[in-house]
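Quick illustration, no need to memorize.
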Amino acid sequence: SLGDELPKLHCEANTLYWAKALLMMTYDFIDGAIASANSPPPFEIPCLHFIEAGLALAHSQLMKGPTKPKLSGTICSYIHNMDCRPSMSVDMHGYDIAEFLAFTQHIQYSKTGGLVFISDYQGKLCECSYTSGSSVSDGLDVFSEGNVESTITSFEKCHECNQFCKWLGFSLNGFRDKAASSHESLPTP
């Protein structure tokens, strides 16, 4: 029934709202870093966006649910919600986008102090889940049923910095590099 579906539909609309805000924050960071850098990055920055969608309610049973445009083409998974690495191999069509999306996760994780990042990037970016850590969600699925808390808690260990993350103009710290340098600074017994 609509009464049962409405909370889930509201959650999906809220997920899209927050995901769009995170992606906007990410592009603002990228634009600011490039503008203040001495030279442009040696790669192109993809211009990606989420589809426009909304929640429409009517007083009849003829129309209900989120409104989404029909998409054509093959839907593929760029990054799964249970992993922060690209879901495809380097030689696959679309890997460059998956690599960029992994970089956007690095920015989002860093800029929110490790609280959130967009996960489950799919197809033509038609759907994604918003992953939040337990300090934000208290273990509840705040934004979407796709939350996988272990993905957030293991991000620093599992994220593999790529050409985007490593470009000096972005000044992003590598998580594995940080762990290695902390081991180097420990006194030896």
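The beta strands are 54-55, 66-67, 77-79, 116-119, 121-122, 129-132.
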